[in-house]
Amino acid sequence: MSLCVCRTVASVFIPADDQRFTYMGRVSYDQVEGAVAWTYPGVQIQAVFSGTSVSMKTNPGSGFYIINIDDRPSFKIESGKEEEVMTLATDLPNRDHQLTITYAIEGHAKKPVFYGLYLDDGCTLMDKPVLPERKIEFIGNSITCGYGIEGNGNEKSFYYRLQNFCLTYAYLTAKALNAQYHVVARSGIGFYRNYMGKIPDELMPKIYPHTMYVKKGELWDFSRYCPDVVCVALGTNDTTGKYTLSGLIEGYKRFLNMVREQYSDAKIVLLSGPMLTTKRREDLRYAQETVIDYFRENGDSLFYRFEFQEADKSIGMGSQGHPNAAHHAAMAEELIPYLRQLMNW
Predict the structure, then answer these.
(1) Rounded distance between C-alpha atoms, residue 105 and residue 109, angstroms
(2) Pairing state of beta strands 54-58 and 113-119?
(3) E strand or H helix at 232, and its extent?
(4) CA nearest to 36, candidates 262, 225, 218, 208
(5) What is the rounded CA–CA span in Å between residue 168 and residue 163?
(6) Which of 51, 177, 285, 311 has its Cα between 20 and 30 A from that of 329?
(7) Which among 102, 114, 101 has a CA at the least distance from the CA of 47?
(8) Distance separating alpha carbons of residues 276 and 191, to the nearest angstrom
(9) What residues have CB less than 8 Å from 245, skipping those under 6 apart?
(10) Gap between the Cα atoms of 106 and 143, Å rounded
(11) pLDDT attached to residue 8
């Protein structure tokens, strides 16, 4: 549920390139001068500010954000089509405050940009927030994005307002394990076939090398973030339509070789999602086991697999058959102890 907030502008502007901001996720400093841009869900902006109010400047129509200030309840806000500045809080106690802004949706069509914060006259940012040492990367599809996570199962179309990355298994897992996270995910995507074979030139291997969700342009500098563990939550879309087992296996090999090329020491966990049933679940399991055997036979023993339980429809569903918030919480409860043991966390 979105919170309706008043729109006012405080008087001191702190630009996004100020070194006292902390960013988490694949962000670009080169797309817009003095600003930070991105396209993937879950990107975070963290800061500690002084004063009684704070407003955020972004590009109009950039989508939905989850706002956390101190220990207050979080809330969701939307950047309207004609508004550049959104008031995040007023009438706060006159002291220092911890602010976290999380991008709630997948932004490939929204192209979000963060320009900075407005603070009270005479106020400023304090010391740069420090992120946890542990690092996870989540590579995924609509489930990882939180597609329809706030829906009730009756929706016939995709709605940004029903996405919320902060309710996903990925966010909940990273938070419980006190880990940073990066997300590279989009609805409908696969490593071998996108949903029903659509847009084949925008498969994950095509976009993965880039900072944004694009198949050309700015390349991501992988040295900026070296995860301890990579969770690859793909396969649900790959197994739609006319797929083949050989295609799954060879597609997996090619993409995972690409990931391993960037992260030589990371553990890589192949996840199997809760939307898969019967033959598709069995085929993906076989492909994953075959690929893991292939890597181990070639001297790489750092590949693993984890299979989520099938979705329990008795607790309701999100939009168009996707997991709702309750499902995601259950998924996190499955994955957290597995990763804790695997990583000795």
Answers:
(1) 10
(2) antiparallel
(3) strand 229-233
(4) 218
(5) 9
(6) 285
(7) 101
(8) 16
(9) 283, 286, 287
(10) 11
(11) 42
Kindly state the tokens that stand for 45.
């902006």
Q: In which element (H, E) is residue 31 found?
A: none
By C-alpha distance, which of 198, 104, 207 is closest to 148?
104
Q: Please give the mean pLDDT across all residues of the chain.
A: 94
d(CA 252, CA 236): 13
Residue 137, number of CB atoms within 10 A of its CB: 24
Which phi and psi angles does 287 have, rounded to 5°? -65, -45
Whether the predicted pLDDT of 285 surpasses 90: yes
Q: Cα separation of 97 and 49, whole Å?
A: 5
DSSP state of 219: B
> How does strand 44-51 pair with strand 134-140?
unpaired
- Contact of 294 with 259, CB cutoff 8 Å: no
According to the model, what pLDDT value does residue 199 have?
Answer: 79
Q: pLDDT per residue over 184-222, tens digit each?
A: 999 999 999 999 888 788 999 999 999 999 988 999 999
Cα Rg of the chain (Å, integer): 20
| CA neighbor of 312 nearest in space, from 272, 275, 271, 281 | 275
Structure tokens at 138: 């989540």
Residue 97 gets which letter from DSSP? Answer: E
Helical spans, DSSP H, in 181-244: 204-207
- Supply the pTM of this predicted model: 0.95
Percent pLDDT > 70 in the chain is 97
Please give the helix or strand (H or E) that residue 325 lies within, else none: helix 325-343
**Distance of alpha carbon 215 from alpha carbon 202, whole angstroms:** 7
Q: For residue 213, what are its two tokens?
A: 């969700």
Q: Find the helix packing angle between 278-297 and 245-262, rounded to 10°.
A: 50
Residue 65 three-state SS: strand
Question: pLDDT digit string (tens) for 292-311?
Answer: 999 999 999 999 999 999 88
Cα 41 versus chain centre, distance:
4
